[in-house]
Specification:
- The complex is a heterodimer of chains A (about 1100) and B (about 525).
- With about 1100 residues, chain A is mainly β.
- Chain A contains 18 helices and 58 strands.
- In chain B, about 55% of the residues are buried.
- Chain B has a two-stranded antiparallel sheet with strand order 1-3.
- Chain B has helices at about 1-15, 40-55, 65-70, 95-120, 125-150, 175-190, 205-220, 225-235, 235-240, 255, 290-295, 310-315, 325-330, 380-395, 400-415, 445-460, 465-470, 475-480, 500-505; strands spanning about 75, 265, 310, 330, 330-335, 340-345, 355, 375-380, 415-420, 425-430.
- The chains are: A mainly beta (about 1100), B mainly alpha (about 525).
- At the A-B interface, strand 27, strand 28, strand 30, strand 31 and strand 35 of A face helix 1, helix 2, helix 4 and helix 19 of B.
Chain lengths: ~1100, ~525
């Protein structure tokens, strides 16, 4: 529940200074955007007006025609038809204006060449004086007591009672009673309670009042945005989670997706890498696919597949989870839908809002590694001749690469409107310095939403979002062989006995193992710049055709241009070998969308509410790419800007792909007696990516809701204000395959004839004329309960999803001439429970509002394609390390992505424990599962499950007077992670620095340990030694805010001001041995729970200010 | 105003409704639909087959390495992964090269089938052009099946790129496959021209088809047909521009290859060009026989990996006066020890003479990694046509004619020549009296042995010997105690490779070759 503290305050006029401030700001913006006003113009320019009995309108036109002066005014503020006679020659504009408007109630101001006309609001001056009186007069001589109830006499605990025009107020106690000291007996009380109409009660010298608030339909009926429309929250039949703007801006986030973490049941948000500007993945209700992607569909202001603006510009995010709500998006809804609604203007004066914050960031954790002396001891055990350059502590490479990071985040918005035009304009800047040297990210964006009421029945509007980002990245989460070691892995692996530079002044290369670059050199010398520009615009027109029937059409266009330039200079190993290596990749993506739909709503009699929506959607996406590479440059100074100067190998490639969709869709909502809710949706969708025999699919859903609380037996209940049962069933598709995959194709073959190349082809893929989407069949049963009217709310959902026709690259017999064919085979099941609770626990001076959610998902592979030698099992490797063999497994009956390997059994302690093919005494011991005395691939087993049992979030808002405190805790329980970082270090084969665990390694004198001895020949073995429980509880955000008191704000002419300090990721409780359980490596549907060389997530400390005026 | 907006909005709706077109028309990649319009669209697909043949999955190693190793002429030197199984006849159905050779053969067959299908899609009435291009594609298909059927025995015979139900395919017997091979090669013979496309020997001509027909009939034991085909080639050698090279060494000298009249079909390799940069991931244009045959620690370009090395008996039984021995083997070499002293083979890491045919004159640009040389691999040369004619004539009782053909080969060998490679065998070999002519008094039985022995020497290490052993059932003899390369694991079931296990698993109709 949000207490509308500002409501009465905003009503208090502050016009005189207010306007000045706003105009100043406006001019500031104008300057910012390059509309430079010439301040001296008014002084320099002389005006001549000679008119007889002419209307003000004509005079204004005349002045505008003969000068650069432009008048800005509202027609209703200026009496344009008033006629006057005026004769001035070569006069300053001030003089002319004085003659025109003196003694009228129009006042004027000259700002450069702009003349602003406004109405003298005489009546508004008075309350200002009054308020001053209130502030200065501290006599509180009058005490009033009272009771606040609803119309039935049920007490409304927590109702707000405020003395009008002041900050003086209290909240009703549990029995609805209050008492309040007033300045005088003629004050007016403003009584408000969410869901009820606010009432003003004149005190009139009474000492006791009893107030009955009326239910406010509009306020109670919170509206939730769903696909192609919105419904009252109480009428929802599907499973929809809603996240409000204040949760999205609780702390500065680079991407609104990040702000969703822990906020909604069934929604799993994870950072894929901690690097500045990295993506966050959103997964709704588990892995429904194995190969086709699990990303939900993002819809921004109706733009399907749009990009979310910064969280500051978002009004709310709705997450559609069940088939009843997602089937309206047809073949694209199977992974859930995230509907983003940006902020729009509302009628009223221009409201400015400025947010500014600065965060100090620090890497969340480090590994404890050996220092130079410890490292020397370890290496000399393997290589007795090893001579360290440095002794003592040596170089701490984590110290070398990490630095304090920081984020500056600014946003300025202005919104407002008149009866006919509403606007919201915002500019935001996000500027992040990463915690690793030479990594940063910045983002500039503009959001502009305009709504125009053209006539009583026609509304048109636009949502424009433009964004420019620039990212400088370092290499992390690298894959492949050791020569590609990234900065973070390098900091773990590089020997502490070496300095930054060698005696020649060159950056050092590792003295042990593969000669990798030192991580500082790699961070600072390698250039990796990514620039991305986005324009996304969506126009709409909404036309009321006749009573109850409206037509809406939207026209959207988005363009994304990205450019990535990389350069390995000769100062690092890779560049040195190639004489510098430059890559420049450019891509352009265009999306065009047009949607048209009719909505018809009508109530028949008392009992029947009907709403029908039907429409058509067309979308066309186009993606172009150009990749180029060259090497062997005369100078490093070219960076990647002289590819033509490359003297060694080079290549260039280009690609184009186009995708089209069209769909007819519709929905029927029928409500009987305001108790029984029925929703039917359907979408017939066609997509070009599907095969010729299955271009179109139909995706239906049906849902039923029963508002039990509106049945007679509960209607009068004062405890239960809402009890609703929901059930839905539907089919949704996942079309996330690339274009042209159903087609047969030819590819180039390299062929020569006597030394010259000739054009040659071969068939490369076999067509599949039946290739189609994956279909998810979903059932959802849910319950919504509200007790004591918003005091306590509870939502529970059970869902069962079965995804059929999974896309698989099915091995084909080789005699066909092809290795595999993309086919629809296999199925996966997800089922689970979701619970969400919200409660207003304390509602007195000290308020405590809490929201918690928890979700349990169980994932199971039901059917897989039959392949070669392994039955239906699919083995694959996610390991970045060479030689580890297959590390993961798909098997029917088990969740996706089980870890696969040996079972570690400590250190081989005696000769009779030695297995054939295993290590000798002191080495790693693995269980001989088949008991044949040999260590072979047959001794591998399932060694871990990456799927958490449940994940949860718990948000708390406390407030006391002007102070508020937010504590947000988030966690995940039961998932396991495969830690390839520790596997690489812990193999102890003398090629890298290692963690301090190695100090306890087996030696003939230290046998009581489970860390094996160092051994040169040891290769990487995937075993449960590297699997950890990744459960965690994390203090995601703590923020303490202070709202400046009204009295002070009035003096400095602000409507609101909030100062806050906050901390993110401050405390993490976990047994995970890596640096952070909340990471993802090579994240994909089948690669979950992997950790390798990630850019660390950060701890942040934020100081911020938010001002409204 | 109101109506104008309404109507214009509705107009947008109706305009847009009409414009969805969900057919995919990719621009950057090629798809079969509408691709084949003229014969010039078919030739790139045929050229694709030659590219696939010139890969390390086929002639570059995948086909040629097992053929060398399984014969009695080459054994394992330094062992190398699954390749080590072939020589001692320990090959299993899961051997990766058994699977790769199968897969790459069928990939190339699919390419040839696509070309043949493409001919059927051509428009216009230029029948001659169509027959010519189809002839070339069908030659390729025949060539590929000829290798496959000899290696694997019962195989699936695929003649279309579109297989409706791949799992219903059954194995065809060699007899059935040979009928198809003869059909394809006969079609090629009837429709190809006397000169090949571009006059290069890496593309087939009528002569190439006739030569392969002679070989196929020989394998089938159809001696009259084999004789007729070989005789046709010999009779038309002038017009076909076929003749024996003067210097046996020049056959394996890159600089002479392009102009050699002896080559009938070659696999074209080119150094320093690869399909992909900077990191080649395909194995196109990648010939590994040279480095695999080469000497570990030897001087360039014979430096190699000593993987495929002749048994010492091959060297000791070979008459030291035979110029072809000097060309075929390197029994001494400068080693990479900075002394420039020519060392005897007993100093080699694998102390046996090494094969020198494929790496003494590989041409410029041989990469340091060892592969990608300019040397083309000879698949068929005129000397073999003469030897087939000799064999067929002998079987048909035409002894004199048979002897004449053999003596043409021997006469060339006697001429000697120049081996001007300083590292090994450097000398000018004057004409000698060895090998002396075969006497026309030889009986059929003796002549049969002489011919097969002549094939062994003349075509040594040229991937022919294994097929001769199989064809003539020589295994027990040549791998027995008195053979060149005793192999205790040999039995006649080893004449065939196993059908790859993955394929067995996929298709229930398949029956594994006996003994696997």
């Amino acid at each position: 529940m949000k207490i509308p503290l500002n409501e009465w305050r905003l009503a208090k006029p502050l016009l005189k200074f207010d306007l000045k401030m706003k105009l100043t700001t406006l001019f500031m913006i104008a300057t910012l955007f390059g509309l430079h006003a010439n301040n001296g113009y008014a002084q320099k320019t002389k005006v001549t007006v000679n008119v007889e009995n002419t209307s003000i309108r004509n005079i204004i036109d005349n002045i505008e025609a003969n000068s650069q002066f432009r008048f800005i005014y509202k027609t209703k503020h200026v009496d344009l038809e008033r006629k006057i006679s005026l004769n001035v020659n070569d006069a300053q504009i001030e003089k002319v204006l004085k003659s025109l408007f003196d003694k009228t109630n129009t006042r004027y101001k000259v700002r450069g060449a702009h003349i602003i006309l406004n109405k003298v609001l005489v009546e508004n001056v008075i309350p200002k004086v009054t308020s001053k009186k209130v502030v200065t007069t501290k006599v509180q001589s009058f005490v009033i007591t009272g009771l606040v109830t609803d119309e039935n006499g049920t007490p409304l605990p927590g109702a707000n009672i405020v003395e009008k025009g002041t900050v003086n107020g209290v909240t009703a106690d549990f029995d609805g009673n209050f008492n309040l000291d007033l300045t005088d007996g003629n004050a007016v009380l403003v009584i408000s309670y969410l869901g009820f109409a606010t009432q003003e009660v004149p005190v009139n010298q009474q000492t006791n009042v009893s107030v009955r608030l009326k239910e406010d339909a509009a306020g109670l009926e919170e509206v939730v945005v769903v696909g192609y429309g919105s419904v009252k929250k109480s009428d929802l039949t599907g499973s929809v989670a809603s996240i409000a703007s204040e949760d999205l801006v609780a702390f500065p986030v680079v991407d609104a997706a990040q702000a969703l973490q822990g906020r909604a049941a069934g929604v799993l948000v994870q950072s894929t890498n901690g690097a500045p500007g990295s993506d966050y993945s959103i997964q709704i209700r588990g892995n429904s696919s194995i190969n086709a992607g699990n990303d939900p569909l993002i819809v921004v202001d109706g733009f399907i597949g749009g990009v979310m603006p910064p969280s500051e510009d978002i009004k709310s995010i709705e997450i559609l989870k069940d088939a009843s709500s997602t089937a309206i998006y047809g073949a694209r809804g199977a992974n859930g839908v995230v509907i983003v609604s940006t902020k729009r203007g509302t009628e009223g004066k221009a409201k400015f809002n400025f947010t500014s914050s600065y965060s100090l960031q620090k890497e969340i954790n480090r590994l404890d590694l050996l220092n130079a002396d410890q490292f020397t001891g370890y290496i000399q055990e393997l290589y007795p001749d090893f001579v360290p350059d440095l002794t003592g502590n040596g170089t701490d490479w984590q110290d070398e690469i990490y630095r304090p990071g920081g984020v500056q985040n600014y946003q300025l918005s202005v919104s407002g409107g008149t009866e006919n035009i509403n606007y919201y304009l915002s500019g935001a800047i996000y500027d992040q310095e990463g915690v690793i040297e030479n990594s940063d990210y910045n983002r500039y964006s503009i959001t502009s939403n305009i709504d125009l009421k053209v006539s009583e029945s026609v509304k048109i509007g636009a949502s424009i979002f433009a964004r420019s980002t620039e990212r400088n990245g370092v290499i992390t989460q690298e894959g492949g062989d050791a020569s590609q070691t990234g900065v973070v892995s390098g900091a773990y692996k590089f020997s502490p006995t070496q300095g930054l530079r060698d005696e020649d002044g060159d950056y050092t290369l590792s003295a042990v193992g593969y000669p990798i670059d030192n991580p500082y050199a790699l961070a600072t010398e390698f250039e990796n710049e990514n620039i991305s520009d986005l324009f996304q615009g969506n126009l709409y027109a909404e036309i009321g055709i006749f009573n109850g029937l409206t037509f809406k059409t939207t026209l959207g266009l988005s363009k994304i241009g990205t450019r990535t330039g990389q350069y390995y200079p000769t100062t690092v190993e890779r560049g040195a070998g190639a004489g510098g290596e430059a890559t420049l990749n450019v891509s352009r993506n265009t999306s065009f969308i047009n949607e048209n739909y009719l909505t018809y709503s009508k109530t028949f009699g008392e009992a029947h509410d009907l709403s029908i929506m039907a429409g058509y959607s067309f979308q066309k996406d186009r993606s172009e790419g150009l990749d180029s590479f060259a090497s062997g440059f005369i100078s490093d100074s070219f960076s990647f800007w002289n590819l033509g100067g490359g003297t060694s190998s080079s290549f260039i490639d280009s690609a184009l792909s186009e995708t089209e969709f069209e769909a007819f869709f519709g929905r029927i909502n029928y409500t009987l007696n305001n108790k029984y809710l029925f929703t039917f949706t359907g979408r017939r969708e066609g997509a070009s990516v599907f095969a010729v025999n299955s271009k179109y699919g139909f995706f239906p859903s049906a849902a039923f809701g029963w508002k039990i609380s509106d049945e007679n037996f509960l209607l009068d209940s004062s405890t239960i204000s809402l009890l609703k049962l929901r059930a839905s069933y539907g089919e949704v598709g996942n079309q996330a395959i690339s274009p042209y995959q159903s087609l047969a194709s030819f590819t180039d073959v390299f062929t020569t004839v006597q030394g010259s190349t000739v054009a040659a082809l071969r068939p490369s893929t076999i067509s599949n004329n039946n290739l189609t989407w994956e279909t998810t069949i979903q059932t959802n049963i849910g319950l919504d309960l509200e007790i004591l009217r918003n005091r306590f709310g509870f939502t529970a959902d059970y869902y069962h999803m079965r995804t059929n026709d999974l896309l698989f690259d099915v091995p084909t017999p080789n005699y066909t001439g092809f290795q595999s064919q993309l086919q629809n085979i296999g199925s996966v099941e997800n089922k689970g429970f979701e619970f969400a609770v919200n409660a207003n626990i304390l509602q007195n001076d000290f308020k405590w509002k809490t929201y918690a959610n928890i979700s349990f998902n169980k994932n199971e592979i039901i059917e897989l394609v039959e392949n070669d030698t392994d039955g239906n099992d699919v083995y694959y490797s996610s390991s970045p390390l060479p030689g580890g063999g297959n590390t993961q497994l798909l098997r029917e009956g088990l969740p996706v992505g089980q870890f696969w390997g040996f079972i570690y059994d400590g250190v081989v302690q005696s000769a009779d424990e030695v297995l054939i093919g295993g290590e000798e005494i002191g080495g790693e011991k693995f269980k001989d599962l088949n008991g044949d005395g040999e260590l072979t691939d047959d001794d591998r087993a399932i060694i871990g499950n990456p799927h958490p049992d449940f994940s949860w979030g718990w948000n708390n808002d406390f407030s006391y007077k002007n102070l508020n405190l937010n504590i947000f805790i988030q966690g995940s329980q039961g998932g396991e992670m495969m830690n390839y970082t520790l596997m690489e270090l812990g193999t102890l084969n003398g090629r890298t620095n290692v963690t301090t665990d190695a100090l306890n390694r087996w030696t003939p004198t230290n046998t009581d340990t489970d860390i094996p001895e160092a051994r040169i020949s040891r290769s990487f073995v995937t075993s449960d030694r590297w699997i950890d429980d990744a459960s965690y509880v994390r203090l995601k955000n703590v923020s303490l805010g202070y709202n400046f008191p009204e009295t002070l704000l009035t003096k400095i002419h602000l409507s609101s001001a909030r100062l806050f300090i906050s901390g993110q990721n401050l405390i993490t409780l976990t047994d995970y041995k890596g640096i952070d359980p909340e990471v993802g490596y090579r994240s994909s549907s089948s690669n979950i729970g992997l950790d390798f060389g990630s850019y660390p997530n950060v701890k942040s400390y934020t100081l911020g200010l938010n001002i409204g005026f | 105003m109101k109506n104008i907006i309404k109507f214009s909005a509705l107009a947008i709706l109706t305009v847009v409704v009409g414009c969805a077109d969900l057919d995919e028309e990719p621009v950057g990649s090629l798809t079969p639909v509408g691709f084949f319009n003229t014969v010039d669209d078919v030739y790139p697909m045929i050229d694709g087959t030659y590219g696939l043949m010139a890969s390390s999955n086929y002639y570059g190693a995948g086909l040629t390495v097992p053929l060398q190793l399984m014969s009695d002429m080459v054994a394992n030197g330094l062992e190398f992964s699954d390749y080590a199984e072939f020589s001692p006849f320990l090959t299993t159905p899961t051997n990766s090269y058994v699977g790769n050779l199968w897969a790459s053969s069928y990939q190339t067959i699919a390419t040839a089938n696509t070309a043949i299908q493409g001919v059927g899609l051509l428009e216009g009435d230029n029948e001659d052009e169509k027959l010519l291009v189809e002839g070339e594609a069908r030659f390729v298909r025949g060539f590929l099946y000829y290798h496959l059927v000899r290696l694997y025995g019962n195989i699936p015979y695929i003649d279309s790129p579109d297989i409706v139900d791949p799992l219903s395919i059954e194995l065809s017997t060699p007899d059935e496959v040979y009928v198809k091979i003869v059909e394809d090669l006969t079609f090629a013979f009837e429709n190809l021209e006397m000169d090949s496309r571009g006059s290069v020997r890496s593309r087939p001509s009528k002569g190439t088809a006739a030569s392969y027909l002679a070989s196929v009939y020989m394998t089938m034991g159809e001696w009259q047909k084999s004789y007729d085909s070989a005789k046709w080639v010999i009779d038309n050698a002038g017009e076909l521009n076929y003749a024996l090279a003067e210097d046996f060494q020049d056959l394996f000298r890159n600089s002479e290859q392009a102009s050699s009249l002896e080559n009938i079909f070659i696999i074209d390799f080119t150094a320093n060009l690869t399909g992909q940069t900077p990191n080649p991931t395909t194995y196109e244009n990648d010939g590994k026989i040279g480095p695999f045959n080469g000497v570990e620690g030897g001087v360039e370009p014979i430096r190699g990996w000593s993987m495929l090395v002749p048994h010492i008996n091959v060297y000791t039984t070979w008459d030291a006066n035979d110029y072809r021995l000097k060309v075929s083997l390197a029994d001494s070499l400068i080693l990479d020890d900075d002394t420039d002293i020519v060392r005897p083979f007993t100093d080699f890491e694998v102390a046996r003479p090494h094969i020198a045919k494929h790496n003494r004159f590989p041409g410029e640009g041989r990469t340091t990694a060892g592969w990608r040389a300019d040397l083309d691999y000879i698949a068929f040369r005129y000397a073999e046509v003469l030897l087939i004619a000799a064999e067929a004539a002998n079987e048909l009782g035409k002894t004199t004619e048979s002897v004449d053909y053999i003596n043409l080969i021997r006469a060339r060998a006697r001429k000697g020549g120049v081996i001007d490679f300083y590292g090994s065998g450097y000398d000018t070999y004057e004409p000698s009296s060895f090998p002396e002519d075969v006497l026309s008094t030889a009986n059929t039985e003796d002549l049969r042995s002489i011919i097969i022995e002549e094939r062994r020497i003349e075509l040594a290490f040229e991937y022919k010997r294994w097929y001769d052993i199989v064809r003539l059932d020589l295994g027990s003899e040549v791998f027995g105690a008195g053979g060149l390369e005793p192999q205790s694991n040999f039995n006649v079931q080893r004449y065939l490779l196993p059908i790859p296990q993955d394929e067995m698993n996929r298709n229930q109709n398949f029956v594994q070759n006996p003994g696997y």
